[in-house]
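Handout, section 4.2: multi-component inputs.
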Amino acid sequence: MPFTNLTSRMVEAQVMPGRTLFSQRGAMLAYRGQVRFTPSITGGQRGVMGMIGRRVANEATPLMTIEGQGTVMFGHGGHHVQVIDLTGDTLYVEADRLLAFDGSLRQGTMFLGSQGGVMGMVRGQVSGQGLFTTTLEGQGSAAVMAHGGVIELPIQPGRPVHVDPQAYVAHRGDVRNKLSTALGWRDMVGRGSGEAFQLELSGTGTVYVQASEEKL
Amino acid sequence: MLAVDLTGDSVKAKNGAMVAYEGDMTFKKRTGGGEGLRGMVTRRLTGEQMEVMEVKGHGTCYFADRASEINLVSLHGEKLYVEAGNLLCTDAALRTGTSFTGLRGSAQGNGLFTTTVEGTGQAALVSHGAAIVLRVTPQTPLQVDPGAYVAHTGNLKQHFQSGVNFRALIGESGGEAFQIRFEGEGLVYVQPSERNTIGGEI
Amino acid sequence: MNGPVIHDAYTLPVDDNVNPYAFSVELDGQWFLQKGKMVAYYGQIGFQGIGLGRLDRLVAGSFHSPLHAAEWVVAEGKGKMVLADRAFDVNSYDLDDGNLTIRSGNLLAYQPSLALKQSIVPGFLTLIGTGKFVAASNGPVVFMEPPIRVDPQALVGWADCPTPNHHYDHEYLRGVMGGIRAHTGLGGTSGEEHQFEFVGAGTVLLQSTEDLMEEIAVGATGGTGS
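Output:
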């Protein structure tokens, strides 16, 4: 368990030789021991390809590398922090919601449009999430930020979940996402509230939803 | 976050307050306030703005509003007075309307009218931090900061108090210059925070 | 579904939390109160500005922060007061012949048996003596023991231990990469070059965030929009 919730808005993690962490810059609240914080130019990804991938993807949330031996406490902006443990599966999450994560997780960038086609592109625009989302894969944990508390909704075959793109935090599992316009939902659009579109998630997995329609 | 299970029945909710749902749902836009055309006209005049949608179907709806706390109020025929912005959703069976609130409304910049909810069923209020419910009796009147007031039920008289007492609380730029004093018999919902009040200083 | 707990003038807690964000003080005498932090009250309570004459003796004994005088009042009388601050977490702390230093914006109220002084560290106030005070924090307060280095913004306060030192991450500023960063700005800063360092015996109080808990201007509560 690399991350432990100290409060609903604060997590603690151990670093030691051979176990590094990545975190959003400036998210460290306190630490004990001999710990180094280095800005990570490649955004946590290794190699030039990773760097280019980042640039193109425009998901360049500034990260820092945390190494050494000690305990580090994280929190940011008073946001709620949800710890998500991965056991070999993949987490899809927007980069700017990532508070901190295990260095052991493989980081990637996924073009959501490839999943949802044209609608995927629209989705990016509607939710302001960009067309790219960060993927974390492997064994380890990630601390994800949300505005308000987070609920986990299971996605089962035949029981898709519809989510307001603004309230969407992350998802995992074998899940297809597409942007849909529910019958009548479109009528609800106030001043372009964005709720004309909903994110439909189907397949098998879990979606994390925050108790707010406000982006971070 | 509020989860509402629907089995063919419907719920009225603040527009844009639904964050997720499972199952089959249909959505209908409505104008808040009283029922039908007359309600709409009332709305226009009162300036209380509340865009309402009616959600109907089978499944579970999840409602939330800017990470606010959600407080459930069970009504058994009595009337709930609430600022429109604090009303998240109600059982479709509850009647919503408007009521003249006088000075308090004007001080809050929320117009002279407040939303009323009446009937038997549940209403969900949002507040900044979990609201606390304070009872008012004839022996124990209650003073509340206008910015912390959320809603009330019962037979309460409310009036502004700007007594000498409060002079001391006024800084250079005001703040708690005025308090609402509730007298009578009823319940007042107070949030542990002070929202922006436009006319707080008067 | 259970209804919410209904409180009245008699069942409101005595000097205890109503919920994580609201605190009920039973007043029978005097309390110091930061302006704009009271959301409701029952009973006969008067409020006096500090420096208005009548309370000179009380102020001389318990209030030594001219910088913050305009932000405080003395509540006097008998009744129950509900304190809250922008839905931040609120807690009470008891000092028994002790001292605790706290970020001035986080302190809501304290008993006159405590003396309030300005800390050497800017923006912090020190409470000395025996008594109770009420403070807010962004998220629940986490208690830590030194040695620890803390982001200045996440610091709520500290008790008993020596005043903190500044700690700078020198390693970061040196070396090849440090030079490149300094000259090109490439890579930016980690934002973690400076901390408060606590050593010795005592307790350090942390909150979850760097921002949001900023002090509000004198007398202007969150309640005045304009």
